[in-house]
Amino acid sequence: MLPSVVLLILVYLRHLVSASPVITGKEELSDLLDSSYGFNDASVVSAFVGELKALSNQNITKCEKCITRLAIGKSLSLLRPDLVPQVFTQWCQETAYWSNTTCTSTFGRNTVSNSNTGTNFADMLSLMDPFGYDGQLYCYYKESAQCAKPATPNVTLSHMWPEKQEKHYVAPEPSANDTINVLHISDFHIELDYTVGAEANCSTSMCCTPHSVNAKTHSGQSNVTWNSFYNSTYENTTLVKGSYIDVFSNSSIWVPATTFGYYECDAPEILINSSLNSIVQYSQENELDFEFAIFTGDLVDHDEIKYTGYQMTVESEEVIFQDMKDKLGSLPVYSVLGNHDTFPYGELGQENHGFTNYFAWNAELMADMWEDFGWLDADASQYARKHYTGFSVETKLGLKIISLNSNVWYKKNHYAYWNASQPDTFGQFEFLIDELVESEAKDQRVWVIAHIPFASDSLPIPSKLFAEVVERFSPYTIAGIFFGHTHLDQFEILYAGSGDDSKTIENVINVAWVAPAVTPWVENNPSWRYYSVDRKTFSVMDAYNFFTPLNETFNNNGEEPVWSFEYSARDGYNISWPETSPLNGTYWHQIASGVNQSLEVNQLYENYAKRFSPYVPDCANSDDCETDYCFLTSFTVDDYDNCVKNIA
């Protein structure tokens, strides 16, 4: 009897969905399901798992199967969301749809609340339209392109701003040789359980942890000849060299983790403190003062969800921000959160739809710390507390900094998949536009900071809308855009129009800076940078990049990493450029064109992107560099996808 009830639900559900992008009518559906409550939970689970399994034998497309699974899940989520995790996890594992670990992490019960609303996946099911854009989008991005990528709806936010005046089409001219310095750090990814001597050449999960293993059995002693295996730490800025650890006594280890980190691991705290110490030391030795700093997100490591959790996330956030405060002193650090800086991973729910209790802990924690550290005043802190940690702040020199939470547009955030054709379900773009309109009206320059670049891991509609906003308020108001996330030293250029034909110097609108990471994961040298910024216009005049060759710490007997100047953005590509002109989108267009046309420039870009690590790809003898030009010249995910398709 129960399977027929499931079928009846689906018929009823399909009728509701065809009329509304968000299903209503719970009372009627409740009446329909009354009979199902005569069955115990095990019977309900068995029936729904059976329906999901039966799809595998139906003569329909992969896309139709994916959409129908969502519809079955939606019917269950509206009345018994607590059973969604068990049903989908069991179906996933019994059909080997994914690995057991992936099934559990995707569908398992992993919210931090004590409610009975199931998982973030169940929340999404209860609100989404499986048969419309929502379902198509989900099945493309979240289920390995089971459906084709749907066409991006033609949405706009242009009704939210006034008409652009003639003066707004021209960027203000920088002053003559009057600059300030701004520090940019990103992507620390602290590995709290980093263990010297643990397996650094692991097959599963994050390497360099107590649970890191290599699937291949290793018999005999490691052939590694390194000697940097010390239990060391920092006291203030002084390295306290600890006792030597006999890592070679464990014959099962292929490559033992060294003191300051490894290329397949996230950053031990000692490496993070080394990077911060190098910043302080450089500024003191060169009598260089920073006006303020920006941090573009990601504090938590990349380990599997079974090794992460709420407490670990909180501890990671608290430890790194405290380290920043301890090392950088009174320097204001204007920060954003990254996709790893939440639990469950990558999730952020709309506050106006009953999900505040899931994620308010993070906004409260950030607002409290940032205000306690003197980075935000009470008003900005209060706004961050209620708006996904986003805020706007005016620096003492008059620059406005707008901080955004990029999980709003992150493709792995389940809450971004319901009502996905609507332009601003989180209200964050309204906040951004209101702040820009206000600044434009008083001729104020603005920096926008976020974690995830819109050509990388973004959903299409938010990506399109952000590009529209940037075009409207450039070049007069928006002086800088700054991201992290990719761990690479990169940039993204916004052009007027779309398609490769639009990528001309005349069509350049603006550019976004993508910062290198401190974490060496994966296969990069740790890095930080600072900008020379025009005091009047807040345009970036130059960027100075610093790095440490991590492999040189493997065999240095536990001594500190050596941090060195890598290159300046103005000089590093040998571009002829006026000294009084900022490094704007037009400047970076010339470099992107060089990457596209010259193997030598492409290789130079890759050297900088990974900071001369041993894993820099050889552009002449591999295809690892072929999408570089697409990334650098695409500001939206649709533009990037279309560009990659055109690569011969």
Topology:
Blueprint: H1 2-19, H2 26-33, H3 41-54, H4 62-79, H5 84-94, H6 100-107, H7 120-127, H8 133-141, E1 179-185, E2 233-235, E3 238-240, H9 269-285, E4 292-295, H10 310-328, E5 333-335, H11 356-372, H12 378-386, E6 391-394, E7 400-403, H13 428-441, E8 446-449, H14 460-472, E9 478-483, E10 490-495, E11 508-514, E12 527-534, E13 540-547, E14 564-568, H15 585-597, H16 599-609, H17 628-632, H18 637-645
Parallel strand pairs: 1-4, 4-5, 7-8, 8-9, 9-11
Antiparallel strand pairs: 1-12, 2-3, 6-7, 10-11, 12-13, 13-14
Report on the structure:
This protein has 648 residues and is of the alpha/beta class. The chain contains 18 helices and 14 strands. It has helices at residues 2-19, 26-33, 41-54, 62-79, 84-94, 100-107, 120-127, 133-141, 269-285, 310-328, 356-372, 378-386, 428-441, 460-472, 585-597, 599-609, 628-632, 637-645; strands at residues 179-185, 233-235, 238-240, 292-295, 333-335, 391-394, 400-403, 446-449, 478-483, 490-495, 508-514, 527-534, 540-547, 564-568. 50% of the residues are buried. Mean pLDDT is 92; it is low at 12-29.
Instruction: Output the CATH homologous superfamily of the largest domain.
Output: Metallo-dependent phosphatases
Q: What is the level-2 CATH architecture name of the largest domain? A: 4-Layer Sandwich
Mean pLDDT: 92
Q: What are the low-pLDDT stretches, counting only 5+ consecutive residues below 50?
A: 12-29
User: How many separate domains?
Assistant: 2
Number of strands: 14
Termini gap: 56 Å
**Structural class of the secondary structure composition?**
alpha/beta
CATH fold field value of the largest domain: Purple Acid Phosphatase, chain A, domain 2
Helix-residue proportion: 25-40%
Number of helices: 18
Read across the widest sheet, the strand sequence of neighbours is: 5-4-1-12-13-14
CA radius of gyration is: 26 Å
Strand content: 5-15%
Q: Quick one: CATH class of the largest domain?
A: Alpha Beta
Largest sheet: 6 strands, mixed
